[in-house]
Every structure is written in C-alpha cells, then in structure tokens.
C-alpha cells in the first residue's frame, strides 16, 4: 500500500508540476499579450494624438485664413466706402458751384466744340439758374454759335451739348463722375492706400 501511496504522491507531484508549468506558461503568454496590447495602445494613442494635432492645425489654418479674408474684406469695404465718398463729394461740389464757377466750366467745354456749325445747350434742372440767355448772348455767342434750349433735364446738374446732326455730348455731373470714376480709382487707390 505504501507503494500505491508513493505512486499516487508522485503522480500528484507530477501533475502539480505540469499544472505549475502550464500556469507559468499561461502567465508568460498573458504578460506577452499585455505587453503587445500596451505597445499597440501606445501606438494608437500616438496616432490619435497626431490626428488631433493635424485636425487642430488644419482648423487653425482655416480660421486664420478666414480671419485674414474677413480683415481684407473689411479693409476693402472701408476703402470702397472712402472712395465712394470722395466721388460723391466731388459731385456735390460741382453741383454747388456758384454761377461764375459753373459758367467758367461751361465755357471751357463749349470752346472745345468751336468747329461745330450750331451748338444747342440743354441745362440740367439744378443748373438752369446758373446760366441766363443774356450771358449766352453777351459772352458765348460772340465766339461760338450756341443757343440755349428751353427744355431742362429733370433732377440733374450739368448740361448736354447737341450738334446739328443730333449727336449729344453728356456733361451731366453724375455722368461725368461715373465716367471718370472707373478711370481714376486705380490711381487714386495707389496714392491714398
């Protein structure tokens, strides 16, 4: 019986040793699995951090560009407003010329048409009080064939010159400013800004 007990004890010891070895093996595999998982987790964390950094950098660039565009648009709007005011002020100044300033401008324009046989002068309603028939007769008609039209152009300042063929030359102040505006904006912008 003692042999049986000895054999049983040896088998139990052997089984214990096998189980201990299996446990040790499983612990080693678990440690390896955990180590690999930690490495993969660290790599994934670094990858996610890079993605977040890239997204933040992209968002920053977009926001920076958006702010720069907004700033540029604001500055451009201010410049356009400033330039519009300059041209509006120029038109108001012309519309508020006194009689002699208006007549001087008119005469300087009429002289350019001295080669025409007849010149009909049509005044804008706002300028109609600045030129009289007697001024035309006493000043202009001495050197130029000008007749003053009885019609006026409603709510306008300045004048239109018509020749005998029906061609009209527009010197209404709003039209002059509009025409000159497109030509002057680039040079005025360079000088002012």
The average pLDDT score comes to 90
Largest sheet: 4 strands, mixed
The secondary-structure element order is: HHEHEEEH
Question: What is the molecular shape?
Answer: rod-shaped
**Percent of sequence in beta strands:** 5-15%
In words, what does this structure look like?
This protein is α+β, with helices and mostly antiparallel strands. It has 2 domains: 1-96; 98-192, hypothetical protein PF0899 fold. The protein is 69% helix and 13% strand. The chain contains 4 helices and 4 strands, in the order ααβαβββα. Strands 2-1-3-4 form a 4-stranded mixed sheet. β3 and β4 (168-172) form a beta hairpin.
Task: Looking at this protein, list some descriptive labels.
hypothetical protein PF0899 fold; 2 domains; 193 residues; 4 helices; 13% strand; alpha+beta; 4-stranded mixed beta sheet; 4 strands
């Amino acid at each position: 019986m003692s042999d049986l007990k000895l054999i049983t004890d040896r088998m139990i010891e052997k089984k214990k040793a096998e189980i201990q070895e299996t446990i040790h093996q499983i612990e080693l595999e678990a440690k390896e699995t955990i180590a690999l998982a930690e490495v993969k987790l660290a790599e994934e964390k670094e990858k996610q951090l890079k993605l977040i950094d890239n997204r933040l950098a992209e968002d920053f660039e977009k926001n920076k560009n958006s702010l720069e565009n907004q700033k540029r648009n604001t500055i451009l709007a201010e410049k356009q407003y400033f330039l519009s005011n300059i041209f509006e002020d120029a038109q108001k100044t012309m519309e508020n010329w006194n009689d002699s300033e208006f007549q001087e401008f008119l005469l300087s324009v009429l002289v350019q048409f001295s080669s025409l046989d007849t010149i009909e002068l049509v005044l804008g309603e706002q300028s109609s009080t600045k030129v009289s028939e007697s001024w035309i007769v006493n000043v202009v008609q001495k050197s130029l064939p000008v007749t003053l039209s009885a019609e006026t152009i409603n709510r306008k300042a300045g004048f239109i010159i018509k020749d005998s063929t029906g061609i009209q030359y527009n010197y209404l102040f709003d039209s002059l400013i509009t025409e000159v505006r497109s030509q002057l904006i680039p040079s005025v912008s360079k000088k002012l800004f």
